[in-house]
Amino acid sequence: MLFDVERTTVAGRPALTVRGELDIASAPDLAVAVETVLAAGPAALVVDLTPTVFMDSSGARELVRTARKVAAAGVPLHVVAPEANRAVRLPIDLLELGSVVPLVGSVSDIPSGLEREARP
């Protein structure tokens, strides 16, 4: 399956929908897409991994980098990683990325609207 990062809107927020395999070859493409969105000064960002079919440690590392980069920009982030998508959730859960990456199980778990969310 080909890799693609599509710019979309999810729950009223700019989003990057990741399709295909998020691995050592494609992780840099996600990094470029995140930089492009952040350059526009979004009020929030969603990274949707629902259609992602595989993720290796390079993809996991890029999610951590994304979370840190987006947090440094003061932009709320939601990473959609459904429990049913074992190809994505297994590395996320094994590496305990939920402690660093703000995860939600589905798009419906993201609060609607563009208002800035409280930072913990």
TrEMBL record:
UniProt xrefs under PROSITE patterns: STAS
Pfam family, one: STAS
Domain STAS intervals: 3-117
Lineage top rank: taxon: Bacteria
Listed InterPro entries: STAS_dom, STAS_dom_sf
UniProt-listed CDD domains: STAS_anti-anti-sigma_factors
Protein name: STAS domain-containing protein
Organism: Blastococcus deserti
